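Troubleshooting: if your tokenizer reports a length mismatch, compare your output against this known-good record of 239 residues.
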Amino acid sequence: GKWCTKLVFVLDDKLTLPRALTDELNSHRGNVEFLYLSGIEFVQSSTERNIWSKVHRMWHYIYLHHLHDAEWFLKIDDDSFFSAISFHGFAQYFNPDNASYYIGHTLMHEWERRNIIFNAGACYALSRGVLRRLGAEILSLATFQNDTQRNDDVYYPLPEGVVDESKKRLKWEWRNYCVGNRKYAQEDPTMGICLRSIGINPINTLDRAYRQRFHIFRPNDMATIKWEDSWFWRYKDKR
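Known-good structure output:
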């Protein structure tokens, strides 16, 4: 993180880090900040993935308090490897105030079923222009923060004679709305849905040999993973 202008760790307010750890992290460049989010309605657990509730609040905070502190803003998981130097080399050709640059490893497996594409949540970047529009046109709206019409999943009725509630089929199109308060909303697809609703889609980040610049697996896994009809490979260039 020493090559970044600011490093923000985003935590649930139920977790408190020892002061010695925060002091140690800031002892080198003093660029570390800890954001403790309160009021997260849907808590993340090993069985319930409610990351979107945390992430959209994070982006709203960054929009309000750090929009003018940097040109590029990255969401990076704590188990991801990120090279700021490599990213600088790649991003130097883009205007950070252009509201088109949503950069990462693009997944397209939901394209045919739900007509959405998005960047994997392990590591993706937003230009300052994109964050400016996202914050002003979506995250700051009361209708996004509390859409009472679409805050629960909707299912098709059970077939006649079936009583097992676990057999209900989810209306996936219901999850194609950009809202902030839906339980179990998937973080990275919902980010793609929200950005697309204001005309922003992932850009092509392949190099000239059609290789990925952003990866969601470890390097040794990428070398051994087999090509198959799965969520990871679907619609990817076979070259």
